[in-house]
Design goal:
The chain has 457 residues and is of the alpha/beta class. It has helices at 21-33, 47-51, 70-85, 109-120, 173-178, 191-195, 220-232, 245-256, 284-294, 312-331, 347-356, 361-383, 393-400, 446-451; strands at 14-18, 38-41, 58-62, 91-95, 125-128, 136-139, 142-147, 150-153, 184-189, 210-215, 239-242, 276-279, 298-302, 335-339, 387-391, 405-412, 420-425, 433-437. A 15-stranded mixed beta sheet has the order 9-10-5-11-4-1-3-2-16-17-18-15-12-14-13, sandwiched between helices. Helix 7 (220-232) packs across helix 8. It is globular, with a radius of gyration of 21 Å. The mean pLDDT is 94.
């Protein structure tokens, strides 16, 4: 380890605003398990809330922007960015999914960059999607992601190329983002550029245009290098876009330069007597996890998501049925697992698509997440169970808001990006142990891992 070149500044190092809940929690996880106190809020924190946690080095806000329109972003993001900027963080991070989920119409990263550039006036916007710890790699501009025992270019990925809302048909990160804005000039700092000592711009290239620079990253060496680029360039480029790979890279740079010490990840928190899972994911990864769970002490409970497309009374009836099934499972010594589908080929997916035809899909998906949140809240309230999982990136955002919590802190690691958290609330959900899992994330026995309390293995 080299000697420190400078000390980390006082106050928050990073403020982040995430376009989904699971990704938002992943940033907190990276910072916390590196020894940097961080907390994720479900809405911009009040001064009273922040006063309870005066030593935070990372402050995040979770959202559902990944499922929203550019018009929604125009209405919501400027004020939230301003509130986070008022905290005077060293860097402002707009957090996106490590599989780049977005399109010009839904979850537009391009529109978020336009708004961020207007608010922070960067010379350029660094973009880091890759996160080698999660088997996300960028090489000469193209994003690759692991699945099973293989690694696929994003546009050939078995899950992301079939995403029900934002299927990935472009692996070139700069091109994918440039197609979402007519104001962005996107380019890549390649592995060769980084090895040759390239740096980020300090002066905007073209007035009225936005210079966006994607960063290749493949391993520990390039991760440290891009972390250094982002950190050393923060004065001219304070607004950065990317996955939790941004924090992984910053931590790697800070450790390599001796500004923070490497720490041992915390252990698990012990097995739960009972646990509740709700899932709105249609990913094959989640399908395998549901199959494992059914064979290992979980009671599978199918939730009819078409009910969100019918009358409110029909939805209320389906929620009541699911809650009753959950409570019955708990009485029988099983852990309830409520799911809308067992993978993309489940007939329930086609039935849902038919039922939602002609409706605003983002609103239908929100109603689905809200409904699963109501099932979870009622089950926890009636049973007293104190550990839960929400599966599905968009589902996590909508469902978690039904629990009445205002913040999360990290408790125990599992796989990168899906740790076990503690909920903070002014009501009965305070202290709830909660895991939020993206659809394509986690080992086949992930639900059992959380039931056992997480921790390294």
């Amino acid at each position: 380890m080299t000697q420190p070149t400078d000390r980390l500044p006082d106050g928050p190092l990073v403020a982040w605003y995430a376009d989904d809940f699971t990704g938002a929690a992943a940033v907190m996880e990276v910072l916390t398990f590196a020894g940097l106190p961080a907390m994720l809020f479900l809405a911009p924190p009040t001064q009273a809330q922040l006063a309870r946690y005066p030593d935070l080095k990372g402050i995040g806000v979770a959202s559902t922007a990944r499922a929203q329109s550019p018009e929604w972003m125009d209405a919501e993001l400027p004020d939230i960015f301003a509130q986070l900027a008022a905290l005077k963080p060293a860097l402002m991070h707009y957090k996106v999914c490590s599989t780049l989920d977005s399109s010009p119409q839904v979850g537009s990263i391009g529109r978020a960059i336009e708004i961020g550039a207007r608010g922070f006036s960067p010379a350029a916007v660094p973009i880091l999607i890759a996160a080698p710890q999660m088997r996300r790699y960028q090489c000469f501009g193209h994003l690759f992601a692991g699945f099973g025992d293989a690694v696929f270019r994003l546009d050939r990925h078995p899950v992301m190329s079939r995403h029900p809302v934002t299927p990935m048909n472009e692996a070139d990160v700069a091109r994918h983002i440039a197609l979402q804005s007519d104001r962005i000039d996107a380019r890549c700092l390649t592995l060769e550029d980084i090895a040759a000592g390239a740096t980020l711009p300090r002066i905007a290239a073209t007035p009225g245009r936005i210079d966006a620079v994607t960063l290749d990253c493949m391993d520990e060496r390039t991760e440290s290098a891009v972390g250094r680029l982002i950190w050393k360039g923060r004065d001219a480029n304070p607004f950065v876009v990317g996955s939790q790979g941004v924090e992984y890279a910053l931590v790697r740079h800070w450790q390599d330069t001796g500004q923070i010490a490497a720490v041992t990840a915390p252990q698990g928190v012990g097995k739960a007597d009972r646990m509740v899972v709700v899932s709105g994911s249609v990913s094959p990864t989640t399908a395998a996890q549901i199959a494992w769970a059914k064979a290992n002490g979980f009671a599978g409970i199918a939730f009819d998501a078409t009910s969100v497309c019918r009358e409110p009374a029909d939805l209320d009836q389906e929620i009541a049925r699911a809650v009753a099934a959950c409570l019955d499972a708990i009485d029988r010594g099983l852990d309830p697992l409520v799911y809308t589908a067992e993978g993309p080929d489940d007939p329930a997916v086609e039935a849902f698509i038919r039922a939602a035809a002609g409706q605003d899909l983002s609103k239908v998906n929100q109603r689905t997440g809200d409904a699963l949140g109501r099932v979870l809240h009622q089950t926890l309230s009636h049973s007293g169970v104190r550990r839960a999982v929400v599966s599905g990136g968009d589902t996590s955002g909508h469902a978690t808001r039904q629990l009445g919590i205002h913040a999360l802190s990290a408790l125990a690691p599992t796989i990168p990006g899906a740790a076990l958290f503690q909920a903070h609330a002014d009501g009965p959900m305070d202290g709830l142990q909660l895991a939020l899992k993206g659809g394509q994330m986690g080992s086949h026995d992930y639900f059992g891992w959380i039931r056992s309390g997480g921790g390294p293995r």
